[in-house]
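Researcher: Here's the sequence for the chain we discussed earlier.
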Amino acid sequence: MNEYREVYDNLAFLLGTFGDMAGTRYSGGEGGVAFYDSGVPDAYENYALLEPARPVSEETVSRGLEFFARSGNAHIWPIFPGAADEARKILEDRGLARNEDFHAMIAETSKIDRNDADMNLAEAVRGDDEAGKWAGCVWRGFGSDGRPPESFVSNARSMARMDAFTLVHVGLKATGMLYASGETCGIYYVATSREFRGRGLAGAVIEGLKARARRLGFGRVVLLSTPSGLGLYLKHGFKDVGTVKIYRMDYNNDGAIVTAKK
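Model: Thanks. This is the structure I predict for it:
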């Protein structure tokens, strides 16, 4: 099996789990495609996920655009390796624009780069109040100002109650999340508040999550990295197993399509 498939599988399972949470919408299982709307107006919280190596039709893309047009939330279409060129052509013809590529990445959990003291810096979130603060830290860490949307806070509280998730933080300055499902285990929401960057906190989160995955019995852990995070993950033992092309759709206040240029 292609290694990038593990990254896809974990993300697909995650979106299905998210889709059971209050305030979200999910449509999946037909023709190797899943649509997930978090209820949050941030493109990188909303996904149209196409299964690698499956044909993509005009009808599939139309269904996805209709799904997201109901909320008017911006969203992304990650195109994993193995997808036919026709898929990218259809998306471009329908007004989606290419954004920065993501990177499918995998690390062996046996390769821990920090000592036990560093790994233990990452504390697990406990209770609704701390989950709400974790959500605020994530929101700031990804460059957003103000309070996070209540739907995002609500989802964080739901995750903190579920066995499949481990939410961690370092002094509520840096955050991360581990999601375990089936044979895959993935890292998400690694972020550091602006004023605390450059202190190695994100690295402590990553190593803590890798150690947690190993304790759960997983030999490997996967993630999907933005370009800005690539160097950090390479430093912490991850290898790049495939470029994921990102197409994005935005809407204006009237619900009309706005092309998002790279």
